[in-house]
Specification:
The complex is a heterodimer of chains A (483) and B (1166). Chain A is of the alpha/beta class and 483 residues long. Chain A contains 13 helices and 17 strands. Chain B contains 40 helices and 24 strands. In chain B, helix 39 packs across helix 40. The longest helix of chain B is centred in the middle third of the chain and has 23 residues. The N terminus of chain B is likely disordered.
Chain lengths: 483, 1166
């Protein structure tokens, strides 16, 4: 938070509302508040002065985070030469000095295992996609694949925390919180940053942590709001049993009256903010259930996302909700799909896991595109690292596993200023090392920020004696994927 | 020093007045130079003085020119000067409001009198006086407050303390950097007195970007440049950063209103307000005051009785009496602890990935008690940093040392333990230096500090104090990780003493039977020898704790937990041979026994495995409950591997489990007895293996427990479910015990001789094991009833005692290793990139440790030495935050050069030195602050004051603050009467929305929802899962406890509104409040009045009362019409509803109570 800007905001509000509260009745005051009293002039609320730094390509982001480390080998990074090397030990020249986790560090050998799943080329761009992703294969001409993602982390917690906050250890703000802090909100009825979680069927679920959408050292109002699949979608959203909507309205009017009296007496602008926040809470009580109400969706749309869309808490449902959130100008929407951590029994696990996401994610991109939203919505897909070319654990023709691999893995992006139908960066024949155009986590962050009109070196927060930023002292925009 | 220079100028000006008086002019006749110029010199000459670069309107008051234009002698009201200084309009008044300068009414009156008296000029100034005036008129730049921050912000990154990245060898953070001729730089960096020729000034003002500093960044602002210019012009004096100079107790300043100060705090505050031309606010009304101080000192509001007693108390020290009562309340320690738990990153889970549970509440309770007992802050410090190293450390002191074990601990599979060992050491340095030194030392992990003179090497030298603990880089996932201690609470200690008493009484009673036992046993032995019938031979073996026994005497079934369990033979037909005791089962490397799904042993279990074996091959599983996982052996078992005995518990064979093996092989084709014991410690050190009763030397082969041990495989004798070779040879008498057998017991179990056979050996020829077996079998089974009863009694009590001990809480602590672990400076801070070895040393900016020995204890003592310039300042500043919002230093976590200069530097130093002089008396310090007049001011703020001082840094009022998260909930519990006032104990699980954990935590973890009184404990006892902390706490800005936090922000969001309106915590509290007033109350008006006062302490204003009454009336009408809605509402929460009350009325009151709990005033301490 910039205290100066915050204060200006308060003073403006006070100048307007402080006067009103003494001249008008509190009920009238409420009416004024309900009509976005201080929001009329601009599309953004909150955010820093001078933001965005330059004209953005993307107004909002839908980030489909794949938790656990999806294997690039079975999905996106086609390595035909491996077929001739089944079971051969990974050559030391390839392995180099790359550290491996202590799970496989003690293995006596590192047998090469190619994907059991077949690849084919698709679209005008001719992108290679595995048979596990038949729906996504149809939209490859809208996607930009990044084959050369890399990270330093080799374990889930530090790796995921790194992707979400730019640091491996807890304590920093998440990417969505930074965006909220810098750009503010585009709507008055929903949070700026929404997180949605789903459990996959890939038998490789890693826990998630609140810090992944937390605000770190930024004020907590910038933290992501996790929508829940069961119960209240937003915590404490529903009135308690026995409180009807009319009762709540009456209650809020009384509360505003009393708080206005307090404001008059204390002169504290926080009291004014409190009054407006209760009104926003009231609006959320309407807007969130409306968001979850799919009755207005056509059968064709629902069918497109697949049968899981009817089940709350699935990736498919969350994809549809993501589109609805995007339509309502929620700025940062992040899905977390658990279950990609297939150390063993990978073929079975990853085919289930792919089925969870394939149809729905393709539907999301197409749906956004048809509604004209893809142009200014950035879609990002990927996990915290990739998986090793060598087998971990049992190795038979149909059964094998892969350990974590931070050195190269694949992500894709679509829309929002990204060049469609391209593949960026090259890995070696083993998808073990990067041959050309590496993209580090910090670079990805810099690029996402760039598309949102943020100079990643300039969005900073002063904490513990220095200016922190998402990209620390690193990161460069990946020009090659910009449209 | 600037302050010295200022004094000099002031004294010269004073001499003006004195000199003119001595010239014999009458006191009554005012002259300009004697009486008026000294006034105007500090308020007006800045813009209307001798300096023509800054002169406004070409008007100057140091020469006589203005007399003709601005003064009408004898007529003040026509004189422009007088008109402007006496103006009411804040826009037109001179000096301008924005300058912060102001003439007092007395000064204005003096100007009026001077004009009225003819406006005489007086004596002209001499040169010295002229020069002094010039100086006085110029803004005096204070290096440490104004210049250093500019340099720090703009220059230090390349010209600061960082040795590794310094440009051109130029340093601007030390005085030497400015001095001398910088030939290579083209001239001296700074020429004192001559800004224009100083290189520094030239470079910051250069027009060419290639030449201008700072390079690649925005140019300095005109204000910053002017500050630098003035500083050089005024002599370029250098001062060390203020915070590194030990505080000296300042004089208490005189103030404009000597009656206002209640204690010296107020003198400092008022002196500053005087300077700013502000006055303090009136004292807050008594109800507000008692609510404020009760919330601040205990974290809960006052009761109505307490409020009324205070209102009725007219004595002069009524307020002080309240303060003293509050400081004695047990709630005080809880309130103070809450701040400390944030700083100490205290939590109930390990923080990474699975985020399993740990037990640290004994440490948390230590903190509460320390505050309640008013432990001096130096002792509080030493015990938490090094209590374990104090001579004859008490249990409490060892518990205290848990402070630096509160950090997160990673137990994720696959991590590199060395990497995280470094993270823990780093966390300790960062936390310790923030909490006690206000230094951001964590920045120096990867490189020299950019802004403060802290070198990377010094970071590692500091970490060496904390790097000597026998800890694990990969922690245990679901429990405490070593080192930890058993830490009974005082009541548990009492219970333990009772048990010990009972045990010794039983032992005594048993010992008294010794003679009887000897004779009875002798009789029994004789009777055994008498029998020659082989079939009647008596045998016995150890039964105590026996979980599983397969005798394998021609039958493969066994006894599991006293139940006969059928077993099946796989891959062949049963085959028996002569065994060591009766028959034995024979194995051929193919067949094995499947003996069912018990016993369940896991990493935390204590157990012993034993059997007689006759191996014919040197690889084979003896028995196990294990199978092949995807990554090797999973489960537990005892194995023969390359002739060696291996005890193995594993979840992943490479990196998750614990195992040890004998160093020497056993012999093939020979009967040997094997016992393996395990003590549940999850380390190979907790394993023992015995061959024929003899302990063997072991080698740890796996020491990385992470996940849980699976229980899904059957007990297999002679095999595992994996591809491990099956046993070849014979196995006899398989036994599993639920405890660690002693060496003596192992020898008894390994004694195959029957009891009868031993009895026939002459007593003196028996081995110890044989004698032990005879005696144990007698006492357990064959002795007369009274002896067996006494024996059993003793054994049972011993077992009770052991079980009780095992149930006691543990706490992770610090514990020094005897051989020092080496510490290295790490290149770029990376764990696998060590540079030179470093040794414990404190940072060079601070005075050195005087003790020869450099360890954690001497470090702690060094920290609390009075010569440390930081600790007392940092600590009183944190206290100050609790009462005024921002600290005197707003950056409570950073007293370094990027930190903020104190708003009241003298007050800070006065408090810091007073704190030390008091013997670090924490309660006395709180008392001092809250009994100040400053603290007791009203928090009401005028728009003007708000504009002038939005954050209340000048303290012309009390700070109105939204309460911390925990206080908001605790207040609701307190005023509803639901609060459980119980100190300490294991953490509890208050209400939390269902399903919150479901979609993000590891499978199997369930929120520990409490019931009954544990639902209503104070919030500092709430179970704190770091990766998923209680949502309502986070919504109200609580720290997540993932890292140390010494000051929190306060936001204001719609989620907070939803929480207070709809969370059952608050709807239930509202119901309880409603019940409370209905049960005690009379009229509706009276009840609403009470509800309001419960929360606010003060009386509701008439308008408030009428809103409440309207609300009640309308809700009552509504709920009378819809009684089912009323019933749904009043059933909120688990606490019982008073069913004698009318539900519609109760619902209406509940809605009003909820309204009150949602008021801005209720969640604010004003």
């Amino acid at each position: 938070m910039n205290p100066i800007d915050d204060r200006k905001l308060q003073l403006t509000r006070r100048g307007f509302l402080g006067l009103s509260s003494t001249c008008l009745g509190a009920a009238a005051l409420n009416t004024l508040l309900a009509e976005n009293a201080f929001a009329q002039s601009s599309q953004s609320f909150g955010g820093l002065a001078g933001m965005p730094h330059f004209a953005p390509k993307a107004k909002r982001v839908i980030y489909l985070f794949q938790s656990g480390g999806p294997s690039q080998h079975e999905l996106w990074d086609y390595k035909p030469k491996l077929a001739d090397m089944v079971g051969a030990d990974l050559p030391p020249s390839v392995r180099g000095n790359q550290r491996v986790t202590s799970m496989s560090a003690g293995q006596l050998s590192f047998p090469i295992v190619p994907s059991v799943y077949k690849f084919a080329q698709h679209g005008n761009s001719g992108a290679w996609v595995s048979e596990l992703m038949p729906h996504t294969a149809k939209i490859v001409d809208d996607l930009a694949f990044i084959k050369t993602m890399n990270t330093e982390a080799i374990n889930h917690d530090p790796g995921t925390t790194f992707f979400q906050t730019g640091a491996q250890l807890a304590g920093r703000p998440s990417i969505g919180a930074w965006v909220d802090y810098g750009l503010g909100s585009m709507n008055q009825n929903l949070p700026t940053f929404v997180a949605l979680v789903s459990m996959g069927t890939g038998n490789g679920a890693q826990p998630l942590y609140d810090r992944l959408w937390g605000s770190g050292f930024l004020p907590t109002r910038h933290q992501g709001v996790k929508f829940l699949a069961s119960g209240d979608p937003v915590l404490y959203l529903s009135n308690p049993p026995g409180v009807q909507s009319g009762t709540r309205r009456r209650f809020l009017d009384d509360l505003a009256r009393l708080n206005a009296l307090t404001l008059e007496q204390s002169g504290d602008p926080e009291t004014q903010t409190r009054i407006t926040q209760y009104e926003m809470a009231y609006r959320m009580q309407t807007s969130v259930p409306e968001l979850n109400d799919l009755s207005g969706e056509s059968q064709a749309t629902l069918d497109r996302y697949g049968p899981d869309v009817m089940k709350p808490g699935t990736f498919a449902r969350n994809c549809l909700l993501a589109r609805r959130l995007a339509e309502r100008d929620v700025r940062f929407i992040q899905l977390f799909h658990r279950g990609w951590d297939q150390h063993t029994q990978l073929p079975n696990g990853i085919s289930n896991q792919s089925r969870d996401v394939d149809q729905a994610q393709a539907a999301l991109v197409m749906d956004l595109k048809e509604r004209g939203l893809l142009d200014d919505t950035l879609v990002v897909w990927g996990g915290e690292f990739g998986r090793s070319v060598y087998c971990q654990g049992k190795f038979t023709e149909a059964v094998y596993g892969r350990d974590h691999h931070p050195r190269c893995f694949t992500m894709w992006m679509a829309g929002g200023g990204v060049k469609p139908g391209i593949s960026y960066g090259e890995t070696d024949d083993f998808s073990f090392n990067i041959v050309k155009d590496p993209v580090h986590v910090h670079d990805l962050h810099a690029t996402i920020f760039h598309l949102l009109g943020i100079d990643h070196t300039k969005l900073t927060f002063h904490y513990q004696g220095r200016d922190f930023r998402l990209t620390d002292v690193h990161g460069k925009v990946v020009e090659g994927i910009l449209a | 020093m600037k302050s010295g220079k200022l004094l000099k100028i002031v004294s010269v000006l004073a001499s003006l007045a004195a000199a003119s008086t001595s010239l014999g002019q009458g006191n009554e006749s005012l002259t300009y130079t004697k009486d008026i110029l000294p006034i105007l010199s500090t308020t007006c000459l800045d813009c209307h003085g001798p300096d023509d670069t800054r002169r406004m309107l070409n008007l100057r008051f140091d020469t006589q020119d203005f007399l003709s234009s601005h003064i009408a002698p004898g007529d003040p009201d026509s004189s422009l000067l007088y008109q402007r200084i006496s103006e009411d309009d804040p826009i037109r008044v001179m000096p301008p409001t924005s300058s912060g300068r102001k003439l007092t009414p007395e000064q204005i009156e003096k100007v009026r009198a001077w004009i009225a008296g003819g406006a005489a000029w007086g004596t002209n100034l001499d040169d010295v006086q002229q020069a002094a005036l010039l100086q006085a008129a110029e803004r005096q730049v204070v290096f440490t407050r104004e210049v250093r921050p500019i340099l720090s912000r703009n220059c230090f990154q390349c010209h600061g303390p960082d040795d590794q990245n310094r440009q051109m060898g130029l340093r601007l953070d030390i005085p030497e950097g400015f001095a001398g001729d910088r030939g290579t730089l083209g001239g001296p960096v700074v020429l004192p007195g001559n800004a224009e020729d100083s290189l520094l000034f030239q470079r910051i003002t250069a027009e060419a970007e290639s030449f201008r500093m700072p390079r690649g960044r925005d140019a300095l602002t005109p204000d910053e440049i002017e500050t630098i210019r003035l500083w050089i012009k005024q002599g370029a004096d250098w001062e060390s950063h203020w915070a590194y100079i030990p505080p000296v107790k300042p004089e208490v300043p005189a103030v404009s209103d000597a009656d206002w100060p209640a204690n010296p705090v107020d003198n400092f505050v008022l002196a500053r307000l005087d300077k700013e031309g502000l006055s303090p606010s009136a004292q807050a009304d008594k109800a507000t005051l008692i609510r404020r101080v009760t919330l601040d000192l205990t974290g809960i509001p006052p009761t109505l009785e307490e409020v009324d007693a205070f209102l009725a108390d007219d004595s002069e020290n009524a307020y002080e009496k309240v303060v003293d009562r509050l400081l004695q309340s047990p709630r005080y320690g809880e309130r103070m602890a809450l701040e400390w738990l944030d700083a100490a990153r205290y939590a109930d889970t390990n923080g990474y990935q699975s985020d399993g549970e740990r037990t640290m509440w004994r440490w948390r309770d230590w903190v509460i008690n320390a505050y309640n007992n008013n432990m001096p802050f130096d002792q509080f410090t030493v015990e938490q940093l090094a209590g374990d190293m104090l001579p004859n450390a008490t249990l409490d002191q060892r518990i205290a040392s848990g402070f630096n074990r509160n950090h997160s601990l990673n137990a994720e599979g696959g991590i590199v333990p060395e990497e995280f060992l470094i993270e823990y050491a780093v966390d300790r340095v960062a936390t310790t230096s923030t909490v006690w030194l206000g230094l951001t030392f964590g920045c120096a992990r990867c490189h020299d500090h950019k802004f403060d003179p802290l070198q990377q090497k010094e970071f590692y030298e500091l970490s060496a104090f904390f790097n000597n603990i026998d800890e694990r880089g990969k922690g245990f996932k679901y429990v405490n990780s070593p080192p930890f201690i058993t830490a009974p609470t005082p009541s548990q200690e009492a219970e333990l003493a009772v048990l010990d008493e009972k045990v010794s009484a039983a032992r005594l009673a048993f010992a008294e039977l010794e003679a009887t036992i000897a004779s009875k046993q002798a009789e029994w032995e004789t009777s055994l020898v008498g029998s020659s019938d082989n079939d009647a031979a008596v045998d016995w073996n150890l039964k105590d704790g026996l979980l599983v026994h397969h005798a394998l005497d021609g039958d493969i079934s066994g006894v599991h937990l006293s139940q006969t369990v059928e077993a099946t033979l796989e891959n062949g037909l049963p085959h028996f041979v002569d065994g060591r005791i009766g028959a034995a089962a024979s194995f051929d490397g193919t067949r094995f026994i499947n003996a069912g799904m018990s016993p369940n042993l896991d990493y935390e279990s204590e157990f012993s495995l034993s059997a007689w074996i006759y191996p014919t091959a040197d690889n084979g599983v003896i028995f196990s409950r294990a199978s092949e996982g995807d990554e090797g052996e999973v489960g537990w078992g005892i194995y023969l591997e390359d002739g060696k005995i291996r005890l193995n518990l594993s979840t992943r064979v490479l990196d998750d489990g614990v195992a040890a093996a004998t160093k020497a092989p056993i012999q093939l084709e020979r009967w040997q007895h094997v016992t393996a014991t395990y003590d549940g410690s999850k380390t190979p050190g907790g394993m023992r293996v015995y061959i024929d009763g003899q302990a063997q030397e072991l080698e740890g082969v796996l020491d990385l427990v992470g996940n849980r041990l699976p229980q899904r495989y059957p007990l297999r004798i002679g095999a595992s479910g994996s591809s491990k070779p099956k046993f070849q040879g014979n196995i006899d008498d398989v036994r599993i015990y639920d405890r660690v057998l002693t060496t003596e017991e192992v020898a008894v179990v390994a004694t195959a001789q029957t009891v009868s056979a031993i009895a026939s050996i002459p007593a003196e020829s028996r081995s110890k094991a044989e004698s032990d077996k005879l005696r144990l079998s007698f006492l357990n089974q064959y002795a007369p009833a009274d002896i067996r009863a006494a024996y059993t009694q003793m054994m049972e009590l011993e077992q009770d005692r052991d079980e009780f001990w095992d149930s006691l809480p543990t706490v992770m602590v610090m514990e020094e290793m005897s051989t020092r672990r080496k510490t290295y400076r790490l290149n770029r801070g990376v764990y696998d990139s060590p540079a030179e070895e470093v040794f414990p040393r404190t940072p060079s900016i601070l005075p050195p440790i005087t003790d020869a020995e450099k360890n954690r204890l001497t470090f702690a003592k060094w920290l609390v030495a009075p010569s440390n310039p930081l600790m007392s300042r940092v600590t009183v500043n944190r206290f100050w935050q609790m009462y005024f919002g921002p600290g005197l230093v707003k950056t409570a976590d950073n007293f370094g050069s990027q930190g903020e200069f104190p708003s009241h530097p003298e007050l800070l130093d006065w408090l810091a030195t007073t704190f030390i002089e008091s013997g670090w008396d924490v309660k006395a310090m709180q008392r001092l602050i809250v009994t100040s007049a400053t603290y007791q001011q009203s928090s009401t703020v005028s728009p003007e004051l708000l504009e002038r001082d939005p954050e209340n840094r000048l303290l012309a009022r009390a700070t109105r603050m939204r309460m911390p998260a925990q206080q908001i909930r605790d207040q609701a519990l307190a005023i509803s009467g639901l609060l459980t006032e119980k100190i300490g104990g294991p953490s509890v699980g208050p209400y939390q929305p269902e399903g919150l954990w479901d979609d993000i935590v590891e499978a199997g973890q369930v929120y520990p929802l409490s019931s009954g009184e544990d639902l209503y404990r104070r919030s500092l006892y709430t179970f704190w899962k770091r990766t998923l902390p209680p949502p309502a706490m986070i919504t109200f800005d609580s720290s997540t406890r993932e890292t140390h936090i010494v000051s929190t922000t306060r936001t204001n969001t719609p989620l907070q509104a939803l929480n207070l309106m709809n969370d059952v915590t608050y709807t239930e509290a509202a119901r309880a409040m409603a019940q409370r007033v209905m049960q005690q109350g009379t009229s509706v008006e009276g009840n609403l009045h009470t509800l309001y006062r419960l929360a606010m302490a003060h009386e509701p204003a008439t308008q408030v009362q009428s809103v409440l009454t309207d609300a009640f009336t309308s809700h009552l009408e509504e709920y009378r019409a819809d009684r089912s809605a009323a019933l749904a509402l009043v059933n909120a929460g688990e606490s019982p509803r008073d069913e004698t009350l009318d539900i519609a009325e109760l619902a209406a009151y509940q809605m009003v109570a909820s309204l009150i709990l949602n008021l801005d005033g209720t969640i604010t301490r004003d």
